[in-house]
Design goal:
Elements lengths: L7 E6 L3 H13 L3 E7 L3 H13 L6 E3 L2 H6 L5 E4 L6 H10 L3 E4 L7 H14 L3 E3 L7 H11 L6 E9 L24 H17 L3 E9 L12 E8 L4 E7 L4 E8 L2 E6 L7 E8 L2 E8 L1 H16 L9 H11 L38 E2 L1
Parallel strand pairs: 1-2, 1-4, 2-3, 4-5, 5-6, 7-10, 8-15
Antiparallel strand pairs: 7-11, 8-9, 9-10, 11-12, 12-13, 13-14
Bound molecules: nicotinamide-adenine-dinucleotide (NAD).
Nicotinamide-adenine-dinucleotide binds next to helix 1.
Length: 371
C-alpha cells in the first residue's frame, strides 16, 4: 500500500535520457507521485536513477534489469514507459496484462495499426493508457493556444513549422540513444519528431490534420545507416488551413509560425528540451513578446495530472483487481483535453469556446504518402 493513500506508485521502464535527465526531477517532486521501481539493462543508468531517488529521500526503490520483473511487482500502480520507440508496443501490452496504468512516451507506436493494437490491449485489460506529450502542458504551448483562440492574428491562413535537432553528436548510431537511426526501433525524424508538429498544430489550432504528403531524404547520415535524416511534409487541416513542416536530424531548430489575416505568431521552443521558449505575436496594434519557461513544471504537471486523474485516495485497501477496475473508471485512453479536469494544475482555454474561423472546406482524409 502507498505510504499516503493519495499517492500513485510509479515504475519507470527504461532509464535513458528522457526518463532520468528530463522527467525524473518532475516525478520526484510531484506531490502525489512516488517512484517505487525502475528497470533498465544498463547498470550505470539504474545506479544514476537510484542515486537521484536517494537524494530526493527515496531509499527503497527496486531496481530490475528488465521490464518483466517491474511489471510483476504488485507495489507498482502505474508505469512510465520510456523505451526506444520500437519497444513501446510490446511493453504496453505486457503492462496492460499486468493491470498497470500506463503513461507511454511519444510516439505511442510505429504505425497506426500498432497503436490501435496497444489501445485495444489497454481497453481489454481495463487499464488507462496515456501518451506523454508533455509539451502540451507547457506555458509556451498553452500561451500560443490562447493567443490563437483569442483570434489575435485573425483567420489562420498558413502554418510553417520546423522542429529539428542535431542527432549525430549526442546519439551516434550504435551508441546509447542511437536507436534513432534504425527504422525498426522507431527511428528517423518522421516518427521521432514529426509527431510533435502534427499534434502541436492540431491542438493549437483545435483542428485535425486531414491531408498530408511527405518525402524523406538523407543529408548527413552515414551511408550504412538504415534510416533517413530529414522529412519534408505539406498538410491541410480539416478546416482548410494549409502548411508545411520540416524535421531533420541535421540542425537545431524549433519554431512554428502561424500566419493570419491580421498578423503572425511565432512560437519558439515549445517542444524543445531546453527549459524555455519564446512567443512573438504582431498583429496590427497588438504586440506580444514573451519568454516563458516550461520544462520541469510541465513534467510535474503531467505526473500530478496522471496522479490526480487516478485519484488513488479511493483505492487504498482494495485488491489489485479491484484497483484495476476502479482505475478504468478514472482514466481515459483518449487524453488530449484531460487537463481541463485539473484547473488547479493547468489552465487551459475553454475547449468549447471556439475562435471565429474562416469558411470550412471539405477534404477527404488521406494517408501519408511518401514519395
Ligand atoms: N517527450 C519527450 O520530450 C521525449 C524526448 C526524448 C525522447 N522521448 C521518447 O522517449 C523514449 C526513450 O527515448 P530516450 O531518449 O530516453 O532513449 P534512450 O536510448 O536514452 O533511453 C532508452 C533506455 O531504455 C533502456 N532499455 C532498452 N531496452 C530495455 C528493456 N527491455 N527494458 C528496460 N529498459 C530498456 C536503455 O538501456 C536506455 O537506457 C522514445 O520513445 C523517445 O521517442 C520523448
Amino acid at each position: 500500500m502507498p505510504d499516503c493513500e493519495n499517492v500513485i506508485r510509479w515504475g519507470v521502464v527504461g532509464c535513458g535520457q528522457i526518463a532520468v535527465d528530463k522527467s525524473l526531477p518532475g516525478l520526484l517532486s510531484a506531490k502525489r507521485a512516488k517512484l517505487v521501481a525502475i528497470a533498465d539493462p544498463l547498470e550505470p543508468r539504474c545506479a544514476l536513477t537510484l542515486d537521484l531517488a536517494k537524494q530526493a529521500g527515496l531509499k527503497s526503490v527496486r531496481s530490475y534489469a528488465d521490464a518483466a520483473g517491474l511489471f510483476a511487482n504488485a507495489d507498482v500502480d502505474s508505469v512510465y514507459i520510456c523505451l526506444p520507440t520500437g519497444q513501446h508496443a510490446a511493453a504496453v501490452s505486457t503492462a496492460a496484462e499486468s493491470k498497470k496504468a500506463i503513461l507511454c512516451e511519444k510516439p505511442l507506436g510505429r504505425s497506426a495499426a500498432e497503436v490501435c493494437r496497444m489501445i485495444q490491449a489497454a481497453k481489454h485489460a481495463g487499464v488507462p493508457l496515456m501518451t506523454a506529450y508533455m509539451s502540451r502542458f507547457g506555458d509556451v504551448f498553452q500561451e500560443a493556444k490562447r493567443l490563437l483562440a483569442e483570434n489575435r492574428i485573425g483567420q489562420v491562413t498558413f502554418v510553417s513549422a520546423n522542429f529539428s535537432y542535431t542527432c549525430l553528436v549526442p546519439y551516434p548510431p550504435g551508441k546509447p540513444g542511437g536507436w534513432r537511426w534504425t527504422d525498426a526501433e522507431g527511428g528517423g525524424p518522421c516518427l521521432d519528431i514529426d509527431v510533435y508538429l502534427a499534434f502541436g498544430i492540431r491542438e493549437m489550432l483545435d483542428d485535425r490534420i486531414a491531408r498530408v504528403g511527405a518525402c524523406q531524404v538523407n543529408t548527413i547520415a552515414p551511408k550504412d545507416v538504415p534510416t533517413h535524416d530529414t522529412t519534408m511534409a505539406w498538410f491541410q487541416t480539416a478546416e482548410g488551413v494549409p502548411g508545411t513542416f520540416v524535421t531533420t536530424f541535421s540542425h537545431n531548430e524549433c519554431v512554428i509560425t502561424f500566419y493570419g489575416t491580421e498578423g503572425r505568431l511565432d512560437v519558439h521552443g515549445c517542444f524543445s528540451q531546453k527549459p524555455g521558449g519564446r512567443l512573438e505575436c504582431h498583429a496590427g496594434n497588438f504586440h506580444y513578446i514573451g519568454d516563458l519557461s516550461h520544462w520541469n513544471r510541465t513534467c510535474r504537471r503531467l505526473m500530478s495530472l496522471s496522479t490526480t486523474r487516478l485519484r488513488f485516495r479511493t483505492f487504498a485497501g482494495f485488491s489489485p483487481s479491484e484497483r484495476a477496475r476502479r482505475l478504468k473508471t478514472r482514466f481515459h485512453t483518449e487524453t488530449p483535453y484531460v487537463a481541463v479536469h485539473f484547473g488547479d494544475h493547468v489552465h487551459l482555454p475553454d475547449r468549447n469556446s471556439h475562435r471565429p474561423r474562416g469558411p470550412r472546406h471539405a477534404f477527404t482524409p488521406a494517408n501519408v504518402s511518401f514519395e
